[in-house]
Amino acid sequence: QTLSAALNALSNTDAGATWVTSMNLIDGSVEDNTADGLNVYKSYLRIWSINQSKYLDPSALTFTIDPVNGAQAWKTLSLTGANAVRNFSWNTSAAPFIGGFRYLLEAYAVDGAANSTGTAAAPRFTKYFRFDNDAPTLSVSTPVAGNYGLDSLERLMGNSSDPTSSVQNVEWNLSRPPLFKWDKTSSPWLEQ
C-alpha cells in the first residue's frame, strides 16, 4: 500500500504533526503480485481525533466513535480489477475537522489471500496532522488610507493574527508606478 504524495509527506509523529488546510481526500494505491480479477484487495483507513478522543465514523463522517469501538471506525475500500496496482480514494470533505485540532490517519491493506501490509493493531501508515482552514487577519493602521505624506512614507504599521496556528510572516509591497517598487517579507513574523 502507498499513500498519495501529499499524505505520505505528513508527519510520522504527533509532536511534529503537519499543518494542513484541508483533508478532503484520503487516497493512494495498493499493489500485489497476483493481478487477477478474483484477487480483491482491501484498503483500510481510519482517522482519530486526538483532541476529541473520538474516531471518525466512516459512514456518517462525524467524530462519534469511542475508542472501545475503534474497530468500527475502519473505512474498508474493496479494490477490484485485473491490474496489479489499484487506486483507492475516500472523500472526507464533509468531515468536521476543527481548526487547531490534531488528527491521526491510519492505513493498511490486505489482498485476497489475506497477505497484509499491516493490521488494525499495527497499521502500515500512521500519519499525524493539524488542521487549520482559518485565514489570518491583517489590518494596516499607519499610514491612514489617503494620508501618505508628501514624497515620503515614514512608517508602515499594522496588525496580523491567526486564531489557530499563529502568523508565520507578513509580506508587503509598496509601489509608485512606473519607476519605484519595494517588497519585504517579514519572516519570522514577530507578534507584538
Description:
It contains one helix and 14 strands. A hairpin with a 6-residue loop joins strand 5 (54-56) and strand 6 (63-65). The protein is mainly β and 192 residues long. The radius of gyration is 24 Å and the shape is elongated. The relative contact order is 0.19. The mean pLDDT is 87.
Task: Tell me the series of helices and strands, N- to C-terminal.
Answer: EHEEEEEEEEEEEEE
* Helical segment count: 1
The strand count comes to 14
State mean pLDDT (0 to 100 scale).
87
Helix content: under 10%
Strand count, sense and barrel status of the largest sheet are:
7 strands, mixed
What structural class do you assign from the helix and strand content?
Answer: mainly beta
As a percent range, the share of strand residues is 35-45%
Q: How would you sum up the global shape?
A: elongated
Distance between the termini: 47 Å
User: Spans of 5+ residues with little confidence (pLDDT < 50)?
Assistant: none
Radius of gyration (CA) equals: 24 Å
Write the layout of secondary structure elements.
Elements lengths: L1 E2 L1 H4 L9 E3 L4 E7 L9 E9 L4 E3 L6 E3 L9 E5 L5 E7 L10 E9 L14 E7 L5 E6 L14 E5 L8 E7 L3 E7 L6
Parallel strand pairs: 2-10
Antiparallel strand pairs: 1-3, 3-8, 4-5, 4-7, 4-9, 5-6, 9-10, 11-12, 13-14
